[in-house]
Design brief:
heterodimer; A: alpha/beta; Glutaconate Coenzyme A-transferase; 10-stranded mixed beta sheet; 3-stranded mixed beta sheet; 5 helices; about 15% helix; B: alpha/beta; 7-stranded parallel beta sheet; 3-stranded antiparallel beta sheet; 13 strands; about 20% helix; transferase (chain B); CoA_transf_BS (chain B); 3-oxoacid_CoA-transf_A (chain B); CoA-transferase activity (chain B)
Chain lengths: ~220, ~230
């Protein structure tokens, strides 16, 4: 079975380490916050200017001046700090964030990522995504492996306008966890019940398959 | 009052001198920390052909979105404009120009503009459509693109508290782009929720020192929420 949104978040959460500062993108990456292992402390960075994002507020706590990068009302966690957008992106661009998780439309074997624009269809803008992929060393891209029609999103070369060039090394799809190295995807793990053959069939870019590809366990 | 008193008493006075074709830098992220009354005054004035530098363009019917209703905006410089149907309509019809700018680059363009730095190099956007036509230089084995800073004829800013001298404090994440915007206007106008006497604010807690502020006005704010999310 392909991974559910929650399983993708659970798998990403296994990459967290105690003391990490983490930026979670909109959508599935946001769910990772629900699966921080017990006893581990991570601080969530929200690029509109909040380090130490807490849970959503209760009805009584709602404050229009307290939002996250998804424009949702949030609270500040204990020990949080709040600052300007310039300061926030100094943290991001300066490589101070330990892990960035974001979604994508396409990635390719060169580590390129396309995530912000579909010409003629979707022209909303890149927000902070270009800064995040340029500034972070440790990035996990979460995405579906192929479109509804079975077309691969893991490509030899991205077809959509790029968000960043040569910056992606780790990709978690609904079918597999892969790393990008020397111009190829390397299949590291597969989703429970998903065959290596299916992953090969749905990966357009060069794929290296080791002899043993462990199944993820949930 | 002293020569440092920045307080004006009407929104007409606050935005006096705004003319067709000017560039206006606006603070705010989504609808959070936006100078909503200064924007409303711009709508009232009917000024046209404006270039607006702001992370977003409000929503339909609120924030900067209201300036689209009478086609006052010629060009937007923003990182994300996805919350606004009228914006998309005018963009696709070719009536509105947009310069999509990465959020961190946008913040730094304002910061640099206000700090007298004409341009800077950043890795953000290298190898993407954002880099088109921009100078590329290599530093320590990595490629960077040159981004020019931005200044405005006006900067419009939303603060929380200020003293009469224009020393401003922002509240929570309503800070966002406001401190950089405040530095980057030839005329910087700040609207706040409370104005106090000089000496009442702790000098070490000031976000925007009064030197950047030309006009200060006391407002009342709707503070609309874009995504009301609560804990279950």
């Amino acid at each position: 079975m392909a991974l559910t949104r929650e399983q993708i978040a659970i798998r990403v959460a296994r990459e967290l380490q105690d003391g990490y500062y983490v930026n979670l993108g909109i959508g599935i990456p946001t769910l990772v916050a629900n699966y921080v292992p017990e006893g581990m402390e991570v601080m969530l960075q929200s690029e509109n200017g909040l380090l130490g994002m807490g849970p959503f507020p209760t009805e009584d706590q709602i404050d229009a001046d307290m939002i996250n990068a998804g424009k949702q009302t949030v609270t500040a966690a204990t020990g949080a700090s709040i600052f300007s957008s310039a300061e926030s992106f100094a943290m991001i661009r300066g490589g101070h964030v330990d892990l960035t998780v974001l979604g994508a439309f396409e990635v390719d074997v060169e580590g390129n990522i396309a995530s912000y624009m579909i010409p003629g269809k979707l022209i909303k803008g890149m927000g902070g995504a270009m800064d995040l992929v340029a500034g972070a060393d440790n990035i996990i891209v979460t995405m579906t492996h192929a479109s509804k029609h079975g077309e691969s999103k893991l490509l030899t070369k991205c077809s959509l306008p790029l968000t960043g060039a040569g910056c992606i090394k780790k990709v978690l799809t609904d079918l597999a966890y892969l790393e990008i190295e020397d111009g190829a995807f390397i299949l590291k793990e597969r989703a429970p019940g998903i065959s290596v053959e299916e992953i090969i069939a749905k990966t357009e870019g060069k794929l290296i398959v080791p002899d043993h590809v462990p199944e993820m366990v949930f | 009052m002293s020569g440092f008193d920045k307080v004006v008493h009407s929104y007409e006075e606050a935005m006096a001198g705004l003319e067709d074709g000017m560039t206006v830098i606006a603070g705010g992220f989504g609808l959070c920390g936006i100078p909503e009354n200064l924007i409303a005054q711009m709508k009232k004035m009917g000024t046209k052909d404006l270039t607006i530098v702001s992370n977003n363009c409000g929503v339909d019917g609120f924030g900067l979105g209201i300036l689209l209703e009478d086609r006052q905006v010629k060009k937007m410089v923003s990182s994300y404009v996805g919350e606004n149907a009228l914006f998309m309509e005018q963009l696709l019809a070719g009536e509105l120009e947009v310069e999509l700018t990465p959020q961190g680059t946008l913040a730094e363009k304002m910061r640099a503009g206000g700090a007298g730095i004409p341009a800077f190099f950043t890795a953000t956007g290298y190898g993407t459509p954002v880099a088109e036509g921009k100078e590329v230089r290599e530093f320590n084995g990595r490629n960077y693109i040159m981004e020019e800073s931005v200044t405005g004829d006006f900067a419009i800013v939303k603060g929380w508290k200020a003293d009469r001298y224009g020393n401003v404090i922002y509240r929570h994440t309503a800070q966002n782009f406001n401190p950089m915007a405040a530095t980057a206007g030839k005329i910087t106008v700040v609207e706040v929720e409370e104005i106090v006497e000089p000496g009442e604010l702790d000098p070490s807690q000031i976000h925007t020192p009064g030197i950047y502020v030309d006009r200060l006005i006391l407002g009342t704010f709707e503070k609309r929420i874009e995504q009301r999310t609560v804990r279950k």
